[in-house]
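Lab notes, practical 5.
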Amino acid sequence: MIKRSFSLAGHRTSVALEEEFWAALLRLAQARNQSLSALVAATDAARGPDRPLASALRVMALESFAK
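Output from the prediction step:
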């Protein structure tokens, strides 16, 4: 697991994901011409209140490969 820290909505938070998920999210961010931080912030803003951020990021990574 690799832990990365982000500032989301004015608060610092850390997310731990497997290296493979971070790699997929970095590729997705690059394809969208945005930073990883921007991708994480957008995912955070769009997720439901019952879904942890790490889970939302994993689902986003998986869905990006299903298209």
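Observations recorded by the TA: Residues 51 and 59 are 10 Å apart (CA to CA). The mean pLDDT is 93.
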